[in-house]
Amino acid sequence: LGVYGRMPQNxxxxxxxxRYLRVLAxxxxxxxxxxxxxxxxxxxxxxxxxxVLGVSERDQMTEFLRTNAAPTY
Length: 73
What we know:
mainly alpha
């Protein structure tokens, strides 16, 4: 939990997330987000995008928690 609490102030995380959102804004078409479980950086990036798009906090959490049922091969 400490890592997630520090991410907003972490210059590396700020740069990564800003670049992610900039790339999405500059391109046309779909984007694929791939991660083993979607909890760490990928999950935060996907949830941040949902937030920017105006998705409710409840629906953001629902999507985030779907990863609890992800296979763990």
